[in-house]
C-alpha cells in the first residue's frame, strides 16, 4: 500500500513541526506543511495529499475560507479535510459536517494520538 501523504496547514510553526514529527513517526506518513491558507491551496494542488489538516484561526485567510477555496477547485475538491481548532462546540461540529469537513480535532491535540484520530476519521484503520 502506498504511503499516505498529509498536508498540515497552520500558521504556527510549532504546530506544523509537532504534527509532522508525530504523523511521520507514529504512522509513517509523508507530511507536507504550509503556513497560510494561500500556501496550503498551492501545496494541495502540487502534492495532491490524501488528506489535509487545516487550522481554523489563521491571519489573512482563515481555515473555513481556505476550505471553501479548496472545494471550489477541481484539483483539490476531492481531498478530505480535517480541521484543527481551539474551539469546538457541538454547533460548530454540525456546521462543519454540513460543509463537507470530515471532522474537527481540538487543539491542543495529543501528539501521540493525532495519527490514530486522523486514521479513524478517514476510515484508514
UniProtKB/TrEMBL annotation:
Keyword Phosphoprotein found: yes
Matching SUPFAM superfamilies: CheY-like
Residue numbers bearing the 4-aspartylphosphate modification: 55
Gene3D superfamilies listed in its UniProt record: 3.40.50.2300
Keyword set includes Phosphoprotein: yes
InterPro entries in UniProt: Bact_response_regulator (IPR050595), CheY-like_superfamily (IPR011006), Sig_transdc_resp-reg_receiver (IPR001789)
Residues covered by the Response regulatory domain: 5-122
Single GO biological process annotation from the record: phosphorelay signal transduction system
This protein's UniProt keywords: Phosphoprotein
Pfam families referenced in this protein's UniProt entry, alphabetically: Response_reg
Signal peptide region: none
Stored PROSITE patterns: RESPONSE_REGULATORY
PANTHER family named among the record's database cross-references: CHEY SUBFAMILY, STRESS RESPONSE REGULATOR PROTEIN 1
Name of the protein in question: Chemotaxis protein CheY
